[in-house]
């Protein structure tokens, strides 16, 4: 319960977004993310790390995340 209370206090306070943002896109969509868009996002949200996966292979993103061991 303390974790939930702390999370609400962080949201209500001056807390800035932080953490890891994982994005999986095709090579076509990657063109729209590259350059100014990602750079401006990173400048506005310095506490967020962006992990972009570019692939044209068909894959199950949920299975890929679970296989990587990264499950929250």
Automatic annotation (TrEMBL):
Highest taxon of the lineage: Bacteria
Gene3D superfamilies: Periplasmic binding protein-like II
LysR substrate-binding domain segment(s): 16-63
SUPFAM superfamilies in the cross-refs: Periplasmic binding protein-like II
Name this protein carries in UniProt: LysR substrate binding domain-containing protein
Organism: Rhizobium mongolense subsp. loessense
């Amino acid at each position: 319960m303390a974790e939930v209370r702390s999370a609400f206090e962080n949201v209500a306070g001056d807390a800035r977004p932080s953490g890891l943002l994982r994005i999986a896109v095709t090579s076509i969509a990657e063109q729209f993310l590259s350059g100014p868009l990602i750079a401006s996002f990173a400048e506005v949200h310095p506490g967020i790390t962006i992990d972009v996966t570019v692939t044209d292979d068909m894959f199950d993103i949920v299975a890929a995340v679970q296989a990587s061991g990264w499950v929250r």
